[in-house]
Write a structure and sequence with these properties.
The chain is mainly alpha-helical. It is built from 32 helices and three strands. Among the domains are: about 1-180, no CATH class; about 515-665, Vacuolar protein sorting-associated protein 35, helical subcomplex Vps35-C (Serine Threonine Protein Phosphatase 5, Tetratricopeptide repeat, Alpha Horseshoe), CATH 1.25.40. About 65% of the residues lie in helices and about 0% in strands. α2 (about 20-35) runs parallel beside α4 (about 85-115), α6 packs parallel to α9 (about 180-200) and α26 (about 515-530) runs antiparallel to α27 (about 535-560). The longest helix has 29 residues, at about 85-115. InterPro entries: Vps35, Vps35_C.
């Protein structure tokens, strides 16, 4: 007697046991005992005992009967009780618990099908999948539909799913509304993502199976559109039943799949963001509000493309629209994440358009914004108490990330880089006093670096401007990345133009609020101007140092009782002045006298004596320099540098004075 006849007789005999639990265990026992007796490929019963199709039919028939018994448990447990009765509720809970315990008996049949040696993708697509999906739809049971779809996805190989993706996705949209379609779609996308990255896109197939498996994915670019189309269909149908967070989780899984498997397809990313914006807009029209968990998923949707494609997000049309659905706090956190990712990847900001677009995305971190809902337009700047009252530690971290962005503003051509600095200053000026404390110093240091770059690599009217040979050895070329200067640019930009830019930046409102930091920046600018032989410019910065010291730092110290600020600042001025080499005798004497005057007026005797001792080095330099020996320190102020009681405070240097005096602006 052929093996197939005996097997089918046994299946029919099992119909005599119709009790759901007993029938399930009986058929499970039958499946286990006949595992080695099927007429499968490489089996001694194959041939005269039957074919692989007979073995598949036996397992499928047994699976369908087991699923019917499993579904019947739900029906029998609810019989005999009136609707809405307490006994019916207790019975339903007990039934669901029993069915949860027995579901593995049903799923084991699908696992046995997938492990059969004779199972291939064609047989799976033509014989197995249609009948399993039909049984899944016809059973009309919520638990059975969700469990069987999960078993199909996790039991059969991933390359089988790629070939039969269309019917599998179509079935998901036909499930009952209460079935958690989100879990099914996310599970499928994760499996396909791992398979494609491991085998297809990285070409890790063996030479024997490469050609056969490539037929399963003949059109690689059709996988994502197919997933996106069916995902959108399912989510539209189940929007009323699924929580918003589950819908967003599904879109996050789809976005991860698209960015990892198709990093070059920015349109795929934008399509997912567009659909997410539509979902959120519909939910908002219905009066829904984003919960904290939903906002967390939205932030993840914004972070996924940033990690995958970097600043290419600036070309996405719907990225900013999705960002606007978060409130100011959420947008601020996302802005910090964007800044951190850009800094980590060291992405250069080399165009004004890129800089403007980036500042649109990180707007809450660089200025105060209104509490508005999503909008495609930038919100007007306003005083937002929730922003300006951030804890100091969090606010400082946020501004530190924004400040680190400024090191990425670079361009091979000095003129373009200077335009970027000018645009950056205009944006930073809208951020308010609290943010200027963190943003202005890196901007000034960037401008000073640009001056050095111009001196190394630029021709002014055909004459090469360069530093000394010793300084050139200390600097590396920013353009070529080696120790030699091999690129020369012709530009109309002069170091004096950038010094004026620095002067205007510091002499506006920054020095009034942060005089100690402003003095340090003035000292850096004066030192560089002196090193380049620009005495007039250096002297103007020194004059501004003493103006800031007298008009801003001394009153600030008097109001805060900070006794260390004045001596520390004077010591820094003295230390920097000892490195000046290109001042004329008259200007140098004025600097020394003014410094001596302020050291003699320090309130503490200890600080006064130490500072006067240090100031003596300005009169007796230890190395040969171009500086003439001035007279010993004289506490009488020099008329060449403005004093605290001088009402005019007008600089005698025309190039900088034309830009406007800080004291005149006061």
């Amino acid at each position: 007697v052929p093996a197939r006849d005996i097997l089918f007789d046994l299946v029919e005999c099992c119909k005599g046991v119709q009790h759901p639990i007993r029938g399930l265990f009986l058929r499970s026992f039958l499946s286990q005992m006949t595992a080695e007796l099927l007429p499968d490929a490489k089996s001694p019963y194959h041939g005269d005992g039957g074919t692989v199709d007979d073995a598949v039919e036996f397992v499928l028939t047994n699976f369908i009967e087991m699923n019917r018994l499993w579904v019947r448990m739900n029906i029998q447990h609810s019989d005999g009780f009136p609707a809405q009765s307490s006994k019916q509720g207790e019975n339903t809970v007990s039934c669901e618990r029993d069915r949860e315990d027995l579901k593995q008996l049903v799923g084991s049949s699908l696992v046995r099908l997938s492990n059969m040696p004779g199972m291939d993708s064609n047989r799976y697509q033509e014989q197995v999948l249609p009948r399993v999906l039909e049984q899944c739809i016809n059973c009309q049971d919520i638990m059975a539909q969700g469990y069987l779809m999960g078993c199909i996805i996790n039991s059969f190989p991933d390359d089988f799913h790629l070939k039969s993706l269309e019917p599998l996705l179509s079935t998901i949209s036909k499930l009952k509304p209460q079935v958690n379609a989100n879990r099914i779609l996310v599970s499928l996308m994760k499996r396909l993502e791992r398979f494609l990255l491991r085998n297809v896109f990285k070409g890790s197939y063996s030479s024997e199976s490469q050609e056969g498996k490539e037929k399963h994915i003949e059109d690689r670019d059709s996988i994502f559109p197919l997933l996106h189309r069916h995902t959108a269909l399912v989510l539209h149908q189940k929007m009323a039943e699924l929580p918003l967070r589950d819908i967003l989780e599904t879109e996050a899984a789809l976005l991860t799949f698209g960015t990892r498997c198709y990093p070059e397809k920015l349109s795929y990313v934008d399509d997912v963001l567009r659909f997410t914006v539509q979902i959120l807009a519909v939910d908002e029209e219905r009066g829904g509000r984003l919960t904290q968990r939903a906002k967390g998923v939205v932030r993840r949707l914004l972070t996924i493309p940033l990690e995958a494609i970097g600043l290419k997000i600036l070309s996405l049309r719907h990225y900013h629209r999705l960002l606007m659905f978060l409130g100011p706090a959420g947008r601020r956190d996302t802005a910090v994440t964007i800044c951190a990712m850009v800094v980590k990847d060291n992405i250069p900001l080399d165009s004004v358009s890129k800089l403007d677009k980036l500042f649109t995305y990180i707007e809450p971190a660089v200025r105060d914004v209104k509490e508005d809902t999503h909008s495609e337009h930038r919100s007007a700047p306003t005083q937002d108490p929730s922003s300006t009252s951030l804890p100091d530690k969090k606010f400082d971290h946020e501004q530190e990330m924004v400040a680190r962005l400024m090191s990425l503003i670079r361009h091979p051509e000095p003129d373009v880089q200077f335009q970027l600095f000018q645009r950056l200053r205009a944006e930073l000026a809208k951020g308010g006093r609290r943010r200027l404390k963190h943003s202005i110093p890196p901007l000034v240091f960037g401008a000073l670096g640009l001056i050095e770059k111009i001196q190394r690599t630029t021709n002014f009217g055909g004459k090469k401007a360069s530093l000394t040979e010793e300084k050139l050895k200390e600097k590396k070329s920013e353009d070529s990345g080696n120790d030699s200067i091999s690129v020369t640019y012709t530009t109309k930009l002069k170091p004096q133009d950038i010094f004026v830019f620095i002067y205007q930046t510091l002499a506006s409102a920054y020095t009034n609020y942060y005089p100690e930091t402003a003095i340090r920046l003035y000292l850096k600018a004066a030192a560089l101007a002196d090193r380049l032989g620009m005495e007039a410019t250096a002297y103007e910065f020194v004059a501004q140092i003493f103006i800031a010291y007298e008009d801003d730092l001394i009153p600030l110290v008097s109001s805060t009782s900070d006794g260390e600020a004045l001596p520390q600042t004077l010591n820094l001025i003295i230390a920097t002045a000892t490195r000046f080499r290109n001042f004329s005798e008259g200007n140098w004497e004025a600097i020394v006298q003014r410094t001596s005057y302020h050291t003699a007026r320090l309130p503490q005797q200890h600080d006064k004596s130490v500072s006067i001792a240090k100031c003596s080095h300005l009169c007796w330099p230890s190395t040969p320099t171009l500086i003439p020996m001035p007279q010993p320190p004289n506490p009488t102020p020099s008329p060449n540098i403005p004093t605290q009681n001088d009402p005019a405070r007008i600089s005698t240097l025309v190039p900088i004075s034309q830009s406007g005096s800080r004291n005149a602006e006061k």
